[in-house]
Every structure is written in structure tokens, then in C-alpha cells.
Amino acid sequence: MGRKLAITGILFVIASLFLKVSGLLRDMVIAYQFGDSYQSAAYFAAFTLPNMFILFFTTGMKNAFVPSFIHANADGKGHHHFSQVIRGTMVLGFAVSVIGVLVSPLLLPMLFPELSAKAIELSVGLSIVFFIAVFLVSFNSVYEAYLDAESKFSLSVISQIIVIGSTILGAILFADEIGAYSLAFGYLAGALISYIVKRFWFVPKGSHKVIGKLDWEEIKPFSIIFVPVAITVMVGQVNLTIDNIFAGTFSDSAITYLNYAKNIVHFPQAIIGVTIGTIIFPILSKAIANANEKSFKQGIEYGLMLTLLVLLPAVAGMMWLMQDLITLVYERGAFTADATAATASVGYLYMGSVLFFSLQNILNKAFYSRKQGHVILRISLFSIALNVALNFLFIAILDSYLAIPLASSVMALVYFALNWVVFNRTQGKLNSRFIAKDAAKIFAATAAMLLALWLASGILEDLHIYIRFGLTAIIGAIVYVIAALALKTEIARFLISKLRKS
Q1: pTM metric for this prediction
Q2: What φ, ψ does residue 462 adopt, rounded to 5°?
């Protein structure tokens, strides 16, 4: 990987950590200002639809543009390709924004019929503001994808931090005056500022031209790659929307519990799974461009195992500390102890989706690097139908909103398993012996960590929550690292060797 890649990776991890911390701070501000009230429910309901298209453009663009730009640049056509993609994306983004603004007043009451009248009215207004922001997000996404293609990952992340920071500032300054609208207008202002920063400071001036004719011969083949990939990316948000719709049949508060829990438990997924996937994506794309099949397969195998090595103990640790974690992060202001208990109960059941979607992200990058996002599109669409079916089934059995995160975790397991089978059949088999052997050692090391925490729990349980939380995390991390090295986990030794060389 080399020293340069190691430094780039470290900077990206740091930037990603700041991004997720800022996202967590945003949720803490929302919990403090609005708790589990109708205003927070309206915000989460309103953001689900626009966020589908925000992900459609941001994550979908990165997955499609990075390999296409690398190939175009190798052929000396990088400038033309960049220019055409951003022009076409701006047209599409404008169309999505206009349609979103027009349909929000009709669609939201249909999707959330059980929400209170005040919550529905507010969610419609918020959704309109967010859809206006989608236009800015659309061409911002191309700039962020360009920065990723140039391995300037941290700059791409910084632009996202600007948006979240503006949202937080809006809530702090104006929540008392305009309520949840402070979040929406803060997001809109952040999207504009983020565009200005990237356009004039981050992206080289001679890299593209925004104004000019559309070359459909260039845009059409890119669209054929981009649309299936972007729709696949939207699936996660579609499933979240399904979760919110089902939660809305219970109460306004159920929507807030699901969203608060999801946001906090997916913290390690965004830091670990997304970071590793983002870093290895250009490596996989370059391996394909150089017809290096061995490097391609090894990149996937090591990406999967590195994700499991870091993520599994994080997931296990979060489950062990869930109640304390929710208390520390959210329980203040309008967020009560009862809301903490309800959110923690949801959080436990969402953890399966964190693990399997993180692993799935590595397989997705493999398909995207081959420009074969359409291969997994059908499985992604099937996951939506499966999520709906599992929600109906588990709600009928449990008669509780806790059925919703359980359905998501089961769906994530099936989704990953199906994609694993499809990958091995269509792209060639991975080294399953290496993966199974190292995975077993990682699970054993995680079990050793949990055993140590159980043995120490009698001493730690009476300590102050901050001290208990910190000592638990330290003990768990030390025991896990020692166990992983003692078991001679190959991916751990590989990681250490690379860090020493860097």
C-alpha cells in the first residue's frame, strides 16, 4: 500500500471520525432541543425522502464516478468526463428538487397517516426545504467523488462536516424561534457553503468546466453505470423510510427512538466499514484497470477481514455498554430517562444490521470497481420487499416497534449472504479458507473480551457512569488486542506490518 496510502488513510480516518462526531453532536442537539416530541418526529419523517436522493447523489456518485474517472483520466479524457458528468448531474438534481418540492405535501401524509396533524404539517414544510438543498447536494456530490478519485478523501469529508456543522449551528441559534425549521435551514446553508468551499478551494480550477454543451455520448454510458449503483445505494434509505412508516403506526415517539438508536449504533459502521471501503475502492479500481486479478481478490479479502477485525469488537462493546452509551449521549434537556430506555432497547436489535451492512459495503465496492453495480441491484430491490415482509411478520408476533430493528438486522444478514453467493459465482471464488480461519479467531478474541468484561462487571458496576464507561472500553480494547495477537490472527499481523513500514 505504501507510505503515501497509509498517511492518506490515517488522515481520512481522522476526518471521518470528526464527521461522525459532528453527526453525533447534531443528534445530541436535536435530542436536547426536541427530545421525543412531535417536532423531532416531524424532522426525522421529513428527512427520510430527501435523504434518499442525497444518498443517491453522494454515495452513488462516488461509487460510479471514481472508477469511470480513473479510466477516463488514463485515456487522457479526465477533463471532458468530469465536465460532462457535473453538467448532467446538475440537470438531474434540479429535476429531483422541483419534483420533491411538489410531491412532498401529497406524499408525506400518505406515508405517515398516524402522525399527529402538527407533525405532518411541520414535516411537509421541512421536506420542502430539504429538497431545495438536494439541488446543491447533486453537484456537490460530483466534487466529492472527484476528490475521492484523486485520493483526497479527507477534503471530501471536510465538506460534509461543513453541512453538519451548519445544521448544528442553526439549531443552537434559532431552535427557540423557529423550532425544527432551524435544522432544515441550517442544512441548506451548509450545502451552499460546502459548494463554495469545494468549488473555489478544494477542486483545481482547470479540472473541469461547469458551463457548456451536454455531450450525451459521454453522459449516456456513465448514466448506465451510475443509475443502478445510485439506486442500490438508495435502498438503505428506502428501508429506513419503511422502518419509519411502520414506526409511525405506533406513535410519534417510536419514530424518534428508531432514528436516535440507528444513528448512534451505526457510528462504528460509518467510521470503520465506510472508511475501509472508501480507501480500498481506488485500489480495486486500479487493479481492474491494470488487469491485476490477484491484487483485486486480495484487496477484497483483506478489506472484509479488516472490517471484521475492527468492527466486531466495536459492535460487541456497544451492546455491552448500550444503556450507558444512550444515557451519556442523549439524556439531557428534553430527552428523558424513559426515552433512554426505549432507545437502548431499539439499539440492541439494530446491531446486526451494522455488522452485515459494513461487510456488504466491501462487496459493493468490488462490484462497482468492475462497473457492475447492476448485478447487485436486483438483490437490493429484493431486500426492500424482504424488509416489508419481515416487518409485517415480526410486528404480528411481537406487537411492538421493537420488531422493526429486528427485521432490519435479519434482512441485512440475508442481503449479505445473497451478495456473497452472487459474488463468488460471478466474479470468481474468494479464499474462503483464509476468511473462515481468520473470522473464527476474531470471534474467539471478541468472546475473550466479553468474558473479561463480565468478570470485571462486579467491580465496575458501582462506579460513576463516566468512569465505568471509560474503564470498560479500555479493558475491552486491551483484552481484545492481546487475544487477537495471541491467536495469531493473520489480518492483525498484516495490519501491524503495514503500520511499521509506513
Answers
A1: 0.77
A2: -90, 0
In sequence order, the 6+-apart residues with CB closer than 8 A to the CB of 314 are 268, 272
Give the C-alpha separation, 472 to 232, whole Å.
38
Integer Cα distance of 92 and 290 in angstroms = 33
User: Which residue is it, cell 479500555?
Assistant: 474
**Is the CA virtual torsion 98, 256, 272, 10 positive or negative?**
positive
Which pLDDT tens digit goes with each residue over 86-104?
999 999 999 999 999 999 9
Grid-cell match 453532536, residue found: 25
What number of other Cβ atoms are within 10 A of residue 77's Cβ?
14
> 355-364: b or e for each residue (b if 16 or more CB lie within 10 Å)?
bbbbbbbbbb
pLDDT tens sequence across 178-232: 999 999 999 999 999 999 998 888 888 888 998 899 999 899 989 988 888 788 7
Cα separation, 42 vs 54, in Å, equals: 18
What lies within 8 Å, CB to CB, of 1 at 6+ separation is 9, 283, 498, 502
Dist CA 259 CA 196 (whole Å): 30
